[in-house]
Structures are given as structure tokens and as C-alpha cells.
Amino acid sequence: MPEETSQPASRRKAFRLILWSLLAGLLVVFLATSLWPDLDLSGGDRIALIRVEGVILDAQQTVGDLKKFGDSPSVKAIVLRIDSPGGGVVPSQEIHDAVMRVRNKQNKAVVASMGTVAASGGYYIAAATDRIMANPGTLTGSIGVIMELANLEGLLKKIGVENVVVKSGRHKDIGSPFRKMSDEDRRILQSVMDDVHTQFIEAVAEGRSLDVSDVQPLADGRIFTGRQAKEIKLVDELGDLDDAIRLAADLAGIEGEPKVVEPRKRFSVRELIESRLFGTLPRFDFQTGVSLKYLMAF
């Protein structure tokens, strides 16, 4: 009798051991994917796909992804999927420089795949890649700089509000929305704009192996379709994202169907709380002061 009762008990103990082992394994996998979302234990050569989407306001995430995949020995090439009208000058330049580091220091091919829009800052980034592939109907180009300033002086006078400024330099309040811009202010801001515009032109000329004199006529802010951009050598080939991935695989010497990996979003309690609390509320962005943008104006 004791032997008969001990057998079910031992079976239950073994079942519980297996169950707890499975739960422990699931917990380890969850923690690993949460703390190290880019961990990939699979072998073989891979193509990394990084997406640059929307207005470019910050470069940190994209630059980090480029560095991570650039340092990964299993990633042989990178495809940048650009669907952006551009954005801030500095983040666009930071991503451009990060692409150049991947190409020059890690010796990895980078291919740009243009989506619906890849203009201004979006094109600035694409110009740093080895090859640019666009859809025939992609909107690209818009090589230029824009600065938008509001003048509220008339409104303040209407409602009886006086703006008082205390400053230590004659041009410290340059670009202020509370007074009319002087001719001298405009000349100063225009010289800044012209220098940043020249930086854009030089980056395109270098990236596309063109003379600066060839790029200057195209750098008046106009946009092109992907097919038009190919004719004027701003784009190499026409094709979709799959074509760009195959091109990257060819440049990297990968045979057969390449495995594509993307950076996985890191788990963030803060972002989760913010999305729950403020996700349904509209966001209002009010920016003051002088701001330079590689941005296609709508």
C-alpha cells in the first residue's frame, strides 16, 4: 500500500518540477528580450533594417541602432528605410555622420530605400549611403534650409500687451516674435542659412560623387519624383524595399534569401505609463527662438 501511494506522489512531484522549469524558462526568455531586445542567438549572415520615419527631431535612437548593427559581426549590410520629409538640421547631420562611420570604419554596405517621402533631411541622410533606391513615385529632393518665425507685434498692440526686453548684446533677441525683424537681423540670419545650405550641397555632392556646381542648380528646395531623381543622379535605382534588401545582400556577398533583422523596441515602464495617461490627449508643440530645419514645407 505505501508503494502505491508513493507512485502518484512522485509523479506529482515530477510534474511540478517540469512545470516550474517551464515557467522559469519563460521568465528567462521574457527578461532577456526585455533587457536585451536585440539579442539574437541565431547564426548566419543578416541584413539589418532600420526605419527613419516621420519628422526627424532626434537622432539618438537611429544613431544607436546604426552603431549596434555596425558592430555586430553577423550583420553584413544595413538598409535604411526612409519615409520622412526631413526635420532638424543637427539630427539629420548626426544620422548622416553615423552612416558614414558604419561605411568607413565597419566597412559595411548601407543602402537607402525611399518610401513615400524622403526629402530634405531625409535625402541628406540618404546621400551618405552606398546606394539609393526609390520608388518611381517617391517624393524626394527639397535640398534647402527653412526657418519659420512668427511676428506677434501687431497682435500684442491690439490687446494692449507691451513686451519688455532686457539684453546684454544688440542681437541677443534676434528672431524674437515680439518685434519686427530689422534688415540687419535678416542679413545675419540669411548668412547662417546660406552656410547651412552650403553644408547640405557639399554633403550631397560628396555622397553622390558629383561636383558642387552640378548640385547647386538642384538645391533650390524643389522636389522630384523618384524617377526624375534617377535621371539627375540623385537616386541610383528604382525599386521597393524588397529590392533594396536584395541589393544590400548582393553588395555584402550574401547568397540566397537574406535574413532581415530589425531593432526591437525596448520595454519602458515610463513610456507605457505616458502612453496610457496621455496617449489620447493632443500634444501641443510650441517652439520659440531660431530653429533651422532641413524640412520639406507642406
Walk me through what this model shows.
- With 298 residues, the chain is an alpha/beta fold.
- The chain has one domain: 2-enoyl-CoA Hydratase, Chain A, domain 1 (Alpha-Beta Complex).
- Helices cover 44% and strands 17% of the residues.
- The chain has ten helices and ten strands.
- The protein has helices at residues 2-35, 60-71, 89-104, 121-126, 153-158, 183-207, 212-215, 226-231, 241-252, 269-278; strands at 46-53, 75-84, 86-88, 109-119, 131-134, 139-141, 223-225, 237-238, 259-261, 293-295.
- Helix 2 runs parallel beside helix 3 (89-104).
- The termini are far apart.
- Residues 276-286 have low confidence and may be disordered.
CATH architecture: Alpha-Beta Complex
CATH superfamily assignment? 2-enoyl-CoA Hydratase, Chain A, domain 1
The top-level CATH class is Alpha Beta
Strands, count: 10
Counting DSSP H or I runs of 4 or more residues, the number of helices is 10
Structural class category:
alpha/beta
The chain-level mean pLDDT equals: 85
